[in-house]
Amino acid sequence: MTPVPPAAPQRPDPEHVAAHDTAWLLVQIRWVAIASQFAATVYAAQVLGIDLPRGEMATVSALLVAFNLLTALSLRPKGPPVPDWVIAAQLGFDTLAGTVLLALSGGAQNPFTLLLLVPVMLAVSLCAPSRALPIYLLANACFWGLTLLPASSGRGGGAIFLAFILASTILSWFTLRLRANLAARAAAIEALRRERAEADQLVGLGLLASGMAHELGTPLTTLAVTLDDWADLGLPDEPARGAALSAMIAEVKRCREIVSRTLRAAGRERFEAAAEACAETEFRRLLALWSTTRDRPPVPLTIAPGTRARFLTEPMFEAAALNLLDNAEAAAPGTLSATLTVTAGEVVFTLTDRGPGFPAAVLDHPGAPFVSGSPEAGRGLGLFLTRNALARLGGRMELANSDRGAVIRITLPRLDRDGDLA
Fold first, then answer.
1. 96, 196, 206, 373: which one has the fewest Cβ atoms less than 10 Å from its Cβ?
2. Residue 283 and residue 47: Cα distance in Å, rounded?
3. Quick check: 393 and 350 in contact, CB under 8 A?
4. How close are the terminal C-alpha atoms of the chain, in Å?
5. Are 282 and 386 in contact (CB under 8 A)?
6. pLDDT tens column, 381-419
7. Is this structure's pTM higher than 0.85?
8. How far apart are CA 206 and CA 413, in angstroms?
9. Contact at 8 Å (CB) between 74 and 26?
10. How would DSSP label each residue in 295-358?
């Protein structure tokens, strides 16, 4: 039997991780609150000399410690996510425990009553509004109960209660609006990310289509010329007709190979990630591939020292390079030459020809769509698609004219920047 390959490790669910982190954050906040409450109690009793029911307060604190320990032990990294109602229940317990401690230490006159706002803010920030509403109501009810204690009577308890309601309401409303704004921003960012991914796919498909169009040009021209001659002059004699048919069949097979190779490249672009490549090896391969698939003479390549440096490439970079070579060959046939150099941080590939150079419109707007020196309609997408394909790899394209013709410079970031240039 063929052994079954082991399953790939599953990536953790981001929502599960976020829920676990939220529950763990509450445990940490509760430890800080318990430590702060203990320090405040010791300070009030020892330094300020306030008589507090230490036994009752110690009992409540012990319950909080036990509750937090149980909560921490129940949090397992691979366990089920903590639902909102559990978070809200924990915050409700914190609110009740805090209220009891405040009731034992001065009621509404205790300056630490403002800490009852903390569970409300945490509930509004971490839970759904329907789960946070009971915590909001509970905190206000507990504060109202504190104002009814004998220690708080006759000292403006009503005004203090009104201030607490206003503070909890305003802070809750502001937090809810902030959450809504952040959610809308996150949705907008996700939409932009999807649009960018779709644009990248369209750029890749455009480069493949452009390259296929250049490759199909030669065999289709051969077929068209042969058929036009037959239409104008009639069918040739049998020996010549058989040879012409064999040549036409070969050109049709070539067209099929070009289409099949383009489809394979499209699938490879979808399923392959970017990979490292040696600069000298990769550019030699690209020039040889272009010369072979286009039936063109080899492009002379001048290589500077240090071209063993590595850079990041992907299938669409191949399509972009072939597209540039196609455009340069169409502008100045048989005059192409290339240079490969490496600096401390970049790989630079320069392609030159001995043609008329770029028009001013192309130099003023390099890589802009439908800006071309060709009078044919629909031209001018090649440089635009190439520029976007290079941008995916962190590279750039520069266009210029020299006294001998056009110059195209491709610059890509080098991966081994600290390597030896020699």
1. 196
2. 78
3. no
4. 52
5. no
6. 667 777 877 887 888 888 899 888 899 999 999 887 554
7. no
8. 24
9. no
10. T-PPPPEEE-TTTT-EEEE-HHHHHHHHHHHHHHHHHSTT--EEEEEE-SSEEEEEEE-SSS--
